[in-house]
Structures are given as C-alpha cells and as structure tokens.
Amino acid sequence: MAVDQEKIREHIRGILEAIGEDPDREGLRETPDRVARMYSEIFEGIGYTNEEIANMFNKTFDAPVNNDMVLVKDIEIFSYCEHHMALMYDMKVAVAYIPRDRVLGLSKIARIADMVGKRLQLQEKIGSDIADIMEMATLSPDIAVIITGKHSCMTARGIKNVPAVTVTTTFRGAFAEDENLKDRVLRLIELKQDDNR
Question: Is 153 a catalytic residue?
C-alpha cells in the first residue's frame, strides 16, 4: 500500500497549526509536501510483508561444502518507534546465519535490514522480522540478529538520557541451542569480551 501523500500534507498542516505555527509563513509553506515525500521514503517497509521482502532480496549462490557461520555486522539503519513516532538512530545491526545449500548475496542482508527498518515498530520487532525474512530467504533456521541503537524517545524527551543504548538479540535454531555458538557470534561483534585476552 502506497503512502497517501495528500492526507499527510493535510494532517501536517493541521499539526503545524495545532502547535501554534503559521503553515503559510515562508519557511513552512512547503513543509507539508516535504514531510509527505519523506514519509513515503522512510516508511516504505510498511507496504511489504516479510514474505514479500524475502522474495525481493533472496538472490543466493551455491554454498561451500564446509558451511560455517556467515556474519555481516555494522549494518547501519534507522527506524521510528511506534509509541512516539520518535527516531531510533545510531542503529547497528549484525546478522549471522549458518548456510545450508545456498548462501545469500551479502548486499541482500543489508537491504533486508534497511527495508525492515522502514516501519513503525519496536526495536525487538526489527530483530524478529529480520530473522523471519532471513530464514525465508536462506532456507536456514539458524539465524542470529543483534541490534544496538539509541531512541530519541529516551534521549530527546522524557528521561533525556543521551548515552542510553538499547541492545536486542534474536537467536534462532543453532544460535538459540548452542551456547558456544552464541558466545562466538557475540565476541565477533564485540559485545562480549573474550575471557582469554
């Protein structure tokens, strides 16, 4: 479903009036249109199901014989909290999986994370949705998604705790069952210190 830009323009104009601004002043005349275009971009993921995203980004290749973990980390995304429509920023996503017969193109992993971020949601849901899509795209049940991020609903309002960082983890299959594998992926993304150092 496409974003209804006309409704957004109308409502943004109303919000500007409600906060005491003049939507006809020079700096705000084009704001409703700018916001409508921005919302079409930043909320693009709302228009797709997880299955549709998996089908968009499922380009795979033959896997090597001895499959080990594939990890892509430091994927930068942003999203918006469904409670305040506040920006979730400085988000870094790490996605790991154990390939079966096929490996997913590396850029597809970043594209999946980016598209999932373009929704109103909780950070926990981002990890769960990325894991669901990765499982569909790779046909592997062994998925780990670790996300760190800041939430402007905590840093810019309310408690105003600027340094606060939220970490969420989603472990499926072997990553949920094997503590050594879980520890290994956490060490590789540097969230867990290696005791042998």
Answer: yes
